[in-house]
Each structure stands twice: as structure tokens, then as C-alpha cells.
Amino acid sequence: MSSAYDVVVIGAGTGGYVAAIRAAQLGKKVAVVEKQKALGGTCLIWGCIPTKALLEHAHALKIVQNAKEWGVTIPAGTPSIDMGQVQARKDKIVGGLTKGIEFLFKKNKIDWIKGTARLAGHGRVEVTDGASQTLEAKHIVIATGSQPRSIPGIEIDRTRIITSDEAIALKSVPKSIVILGSGAVGVEFASIYRRFGSEVTIIELLPRLVPNEDEAVSAELEKSFKKQGIKTLVGTKVTKAAATAGSVDIEVQDGAGKSQKLSAELLLVATGRGPVTTGLGVEALGIELEKGYVKVDSLYRTSVPGISAIGDVITMGAAPHPQLAHVSSMEGIIAAERIAGHDVQLLNYEHVPGCTYCDPEIGSVGLTEAEATRRGYDVKIGTFPFGVLGRAKMAGETEGFVKIVADKKYDEILGVHMIGPRSTELVAEAVLALRLECTVEELVRTIHAHPTFSEAVGEASHAAHGAAIHM
Ligand SMILES: Cc1cc2nc3c(=O)[nH]c(=O)nc-3n(C[C@H](O)[C@H](O)[C@H](O)COP(=O)(O)OP(=O)(O)OC[C@H]3O[C@@H](n4cnc5c(N)ncnc54)[C@H](O)[C@@H]3O)c2cc1C
Fold first, then answer.
1. Which of 251, 276, 278 minimizes the C-alpha distance to 262?
2. What is the pLDDT of residues 325-376, one digit of tens each?
3. Which residues are CB-contacts of 361 (< 8 A; sequence separation ≥ 6)?
4. Is 427 strand, coil or helix?
5. Which of 450, 462, 465, 470 is catalytic?
6. CB 48 less than 6 A from any atom of ligand 1
7. Full-model pTM
8. Which of 5, 287, 379, 460 has the most CB atoms within 10 Å of its CB?
9. Ligand 1 centroid to 143 CA: how many Å?
10. Residue 67 CA to chain centroid, in angstroms?
């Protein structure tokens, strides 16, 4: 059987399903091939949604643990978490959202072809596993995403040495967990399982937690984690990890060559994700790859005409490509618009917000202070702590700050970095400020409602002019 489409998208993650919807909105006949039983890919099934659902549970437990302060009386006993209910609620949220994409496909007349896709030649996609068929397509979009990967010497057994795929689905709270890697995934699980009651240790090869963030943010997170009882071993590498019946034996070595042994119920490997291209037939078609990633230009065209690629599976050559849901979706929109013959605006990767939902949350966009200095800017900084704000005091969330990095010469905002309550929401204002090339003065003149957390953004801009009002 063969069917003809304008666009066939391979993979229904946040890149693929958004590209499909945008192409359909622009009048294209679209099919999406997805091998999973549900739509939504990593973000909905194993990534953003399940982890943030678990973090909301952790936040609820935090409020209950502090019930006395809130004047809420609860029966005697230590509040604890019921993992059965946590998993049931999380699964309900995931199920509802994946069904929502099925609805959007129907609404936009997009065919979901169930099965595994393989490129079968120019303009041809072969689907197996489901009803075997060949699809003909004027345009093909590869959006096959990424999967967890380990580091040499550490074998993931998915029982004791696990990935985020298993960490979102634990049926009980582990007594102890060692987390390898302190990027977004690592520190989010540290927050979740520490709050649920586990002993948590994070091991990071680089000298600080969340090493892609501004140094001040890393320092604040380390301070907070210490207070919460999360152990951090930075500048440390794992040299050995062996699973036994009931635990994992881990050997680590610090920068000075000093070794130590750790033991934990679980080792979570959160050292990054690799591209999914196995069996896709990319090599046979001559599509250029780089370290396994599909190489694309700034309009998401691969080296083979008629085949585009977006999302976690791509590389653009220079800087590492951010593996984020919102990046993949925007790439999907741009690719679909270009395929439909529209003029498109290139994505500015320097304006991609980074949100990390650990406790306290991190939101950042643009240049860090170190990067702005490295690029030769004469940098000025404005920092304002959340703790001074009435709203933060009311919420009992007083940790952290907003830091603005700006250029002294033109007053232009170069980056905004925040750690503290609602930072993953507050960063949206900073993203717009960067997109509109705002000056600090324009942020100073922007009214921030009172009492809100967003006052910290306004006050940080005042601080960058040396004139914070409430400090
Ligand atoms: C634990 C965790 C937490 C995360 N949290 C966040 C977050 O808070 N915010 C954020 O922005 N990002 C987050 N991410 C990253 C985000 O999930 C990814 O960047 C995003 O899902 C990438 O989308 P994608 O469409 O490129 O690929 P994916 O979502 O990986 O989708 C690819 C799809 O292609 C399908 N597929 C692959 N090969 C084939 C084939 N041959 N045939 C048919 N189907 C195929 C797969 O089944 C999959 O459904 C998180 C990731 C993880 C692991």
C-alpha cells in the first residue's frame, strides 16, 4: 500500500508534532510516523511533563512538611509521600496531554501512521511494525529525537544503574541515590528525591553544579542544596560503578586524584542524551551526520534535498545544539513554514531560555557575566535578592536573586539569570527584553506589579543603574 503526502514527519515529539500541525495549518497534507503507543515523544512521556509533575508533588510535600508555619494543623506523625498516588497522578497528566495531541491531529487532519519509519529513498518512507506500508512525500522531516546515554565504563542495567526513563517511574522512594551529572535533569531529580526522603549525592565532573549557568547561580544552588542535605561532589569523576543485588558500588576520584568509595540503592546516570538514527536509513541516503547527529543548516535542511531535520537529533556544527522541547517546537514551526514557501526568521539560539525546575528554580537567557566579559563587553551587573520582596516572604520562598548582565556602553541587556521562586516563569520577560534588544533603562521604566515576584526583575534593573529602591 502507498499513500502520498506533502509532508511526512518521522517522530511525534515536541519537534515533530508541532512541525506537523504548522504544516497542516498552512494547507499541507501531512502524516506523522510514530512508533510509540502515544504521541508527544520524550517531553510528554519521559521528560518535561513527568519530571515537573513529580516536582509539583515534592512542592506539595514541602508545604505539608512546613504545615505548622502555615498554621495548618495535621494529625501527629511525619508527612510522607505515597508513590502509588504520585505515579497515578503523573500518569493521568501524561495520558491527558498525549490524548490532547491525538485530538489536535484529528482537528488538523494529520494522519498518525503507527509504526517505525525508515527512509526508503528520495521522497519515500517505509513504515514497519504497524501496518507495513510505503509513504510518498514531497518533503520529509526527521524528528526522531534523543535517548539517554551513558559514559564509558558505566553500564546502564535499568534496575540499579538507571536513566531518567526509570527515575520517573520508581514505585518506592529509594533510601539513597547517587546522581551522575548536575545538568537540568540531574538537579531536578536531586530535588525530587531529596524532598521525598532519599539520601542524595550529586557527582559533577566540572567544578560547579549546573555548569552552563552563570557562576553566581551555581554557587547559590550549591548553598541551597547543602542546606537541604543534598551532598555535592564537584570536580569529581566516577571511575567505576558496579551493581550488586541490593545496591551500586561506586568509585569516584576528585581533581587531586584522591579516590573514595560510595554505595547507594540507585545510581542515576544523567550525563546527557544521544541522537536516535539507528535503522533510519540516513547513511544509505547520504545524509551528512556529525557524531551521529543529523547535520542541518540554519533552515533545518539536511545535505539531501527534500529532507529536513529538527529537534534533539540535529547538530548545526558550531555550538552544541540545545536539547529542549521549546527549541524543537520552534524549529518545527520554522521548518514547516519554509517548506510551505513562507519567508522565515532564523532562530536566535542566544535567546533560548533555559529553565531548570529544581528547588530553587533557575531561569536564564542570554550571556552569562563570564561569557559577556570573554566577548569583550564592558559589563555592568544588577542583582536583587528575592528575599527582600513582600511576595517572597508571604510564600516562604526567600532564596535566590535576579541578576542582569548589561553592556555599560549602550546599556543593552545581554543576559538575565535568576534562581529562586517562579524563576522559570519570570524568565519570559527577560526573553522578550533580549528579543526586543531592550536597554536596562527600558526595563527600569517598565512597571512591575506589586506585590509580585516579578518586582525582583524590575529591581535588578534599577540595581544595574546603581539605584535599587528596596536595598
Ligand atoms: C528527564 C527529562 C526532562 C526534560 N525536561 C525538559 C524541560 O523541562 N524543558 C524542556 O524544554 N526540555 C526538557 N527535556 C528535553 C525535551 O524532552 C527534548 O528536548 C524534546 O522532547 C525533544 O523533542 P524532539 O521532538 O526532538 O524528540 P523526542 O521528543 O525525543 O521525540 C522523538 C520521537 O520520535 C520517535 N521515533 C524515533 N525514531 C523513530 C522511527 N524510526 N520511526 C517512528 N518514530 C520514531 C520516538 O518514539 C519519539 O516519540 C527533558 C528531557 C528529559 C529526558
1. 251
2. 999 999 999 999 999 999 999 999 999 999 999 999 999 999 999 999 999 9
3. 355, 419, 420, 421, 422, 423, 424
4. helix
5. 450
6. yes
7. 0.97
8. 460
9. 9
10. 31
